[in-house]
Large ribosomal subunit protein bL28
Amino acid sequence: MSRRCELTGVGPMIGHNVSHSNIKTKRRFLPALSPATLQSESLGQSFKLRISNAALRTLDFKGGLDVFLLGAKDEQLSPRALKIKAQVKAKAKAAAQAA
């Protein structure tokens, strides 16, 4: 399983450990990923995704999974998140047609 956020696409970054004597050794900065069950209001379903803690705070700020997915770029999303986004778009389009 890759260490990449399914919603924001954040992955490992590379940097240096710097010792007191200023010797630099390579290291990886891994994102803080956690499994989260997210509820979609329009679909009435819950989805289990592996997202970063920063993405979880962003979801709360934006107002939920549906709003976040509709505003997100497709390049950042995982294939599972892209399927959810397509479902949300189809549901929103059907609701707009009915209204």
In short: The longest helix spans residues 79-98. The helical segments are 53-62, 65-71, 79-98. The domain at 13-98 is CATH 2.30.170.40 (Ribosomal Protein L24e; Chain: T;). The mean pLDDT is 95.
